[in-house]
Amino acid sequence: GASRLKAFFMITLPQIRFSVITGALLAFIVSFDEVIVALFISGGKMSTITRSMFLALRDQIDPTIASISTVMVLITSVALLLAQMFGKSKSK
Question: The dihedral of CA 65, 68, 74, 78: what is its sign?
Fold first, then answer.
């Protein structure tokens, strides 16, 4: 007797929430890899972090890029580990 919208939010969404969260994390992570798109659409004083990293790699030798990459990998790994831990504990 529920409407489609209420049935979606009360039944379907709780069942697929981990997939939605995982998809959002994957989209966020993949968006950092879009250097080509960032190079074409950003310019002037406004630039994305990927464009700044690419230009820094091309123009200068600096350990900042390596440290940013390490932090990004660590954040991704921690996020995936947390998703695995909380996903397993709720499924039991």
Answer: negative
